């Protein structure tokens, strides 16, 4: 029997617009992008035995789109000269590649379950007008609704990648543009917080894990594409767990070092990096996931990161299962539509005003804020699901979980950046534009922002968290952190309660009960303290953490990320962080070996996929971080012979003087 596992290929467009009608083939005047049905979100039921192979093929679909967009970007002149070029050289070959990949997905599922129906309908892609229409000149920062302009000519150090599809703007020619920004002062307050009811869990638990001052980055995503190098096609900041890359097994995560003050929190918190479009060539400028795929510019280290777990306005919370995976937001929402978007952009002092599809222009003295409010309802069975969504859900507007789901602590992740409002009137030449990393075809749109979380809390610490929240207390190693820097948060802003921070839209509210079979059982692997990546900045991040809280962090712990073996003692900000690109080796996504004539990726183009919980036979392929050479113990071992010699010389001098006097 066949199983229909997908929604309509034309669903999910902005304002109900069908994908096929968004544009015809041929490059629109203002720039174009590739629009393909998102197969991953439509596969809601994949047997566990087929997950590894299906994940590999889904990663290949992303690779094919990325390469098609790169070819589109480089072919503007040919498309202008030949209206059929885009069809013959880009769109049709992409459809053929996708059809072959989708057939392999169907075969993999059919071996162990019911063959999915309708996958063939998801092969076709279109060219979509990016909406980044060129303009004669923007009109300043009075509202941010200015038409897009060619930012590729508005940088201090123009880069070659900015040519081609220049109308899409940005340092690499694929965004952002002026129309992606809006003055926060022109946004009306829009945050609505459910009122707690009788059985509400009113407490909060904070963990403090630094701001990634030690520079741990990669372009992998172990949740979506385990075992696949560069599976994200954009770079992530990582705090907490220091062993997260595409090849990390559950045991690797359990044994890892952590940047969190409370060493009982080895969870992994990661999100796309924010970059200034100022012409800087980062260390990933020529690497997959970085400059090669349109993610260019200076990576900005956050000024502050707060990680708070809050309760439910309706019910007591239950413990998260160990190794629970949650993704909030949609990295492909520019073409998928806003159904799963959960981006929230604002400014300190204005956090009662949240933006979903615009970057904020903050007034002087106010900082840019990204907020992620993760799903707070769990199905009680699975730690992951085939599309990485249906095992968790958002509560409704009143704070109630869908039927069959139970309330869990809600992670509220707040990231603050000290970046100035860009000068839109000159395309960012005076003050550069900023944008999050994205898939190349998503054009760095703010609506594509997203966050990822893997729960690796010690079970005892998780119990303390649940007790704290349910008893209405404020606990945790990060509980002393201030909610903002500078101005007070806007009226009505409450980072501790409420679900959707966007403009009245509630992504994926009240989903249907998941249909997939249970994934890995949430049994905890044994804790250990091996396997962490070496290197840590160690220094004071200046975020005002007081180390207090009922989670009992280690005694005498300073309010910074805990030092780890191999600590280089590098002060934050003294050197540029090392960018840890994951190389595309062997069959990796970036290595085509010259065999793919149309550049859209064959099946073997993706790194060998492992199971959902891979156990690598070799160390991670990420480059090692810079580690300081030698510590105090090493220095002492080298200096004590010299010190002893000095003492002997002084003693001899004293004896000689006494002999002369006698």
From TrEMBL:
Residues 1-34, 127-177, 476-633 are annotated as: Disordered. It comes from Streptomyces levis. This is DUF1996 domain-containing protein. Residues 163-173, 476-501 have a biased composition (Gly residues). Keywords: Membrane, Transmembrane, Transmembrane helix. InterPro entries: DUF1996. Residues 223-455 form the DUF1996 domain. It holds the Pfam family DUF1996. Residues 540-551 have a biased composition (Basic and acidic residues). The chain crosses the membrane at residues 639-656. The keyword Membrane applies. Residues 147-162, 552-565, 608-626 have a biased composition (Low complexity). The keyword Metal-binding does not apply.
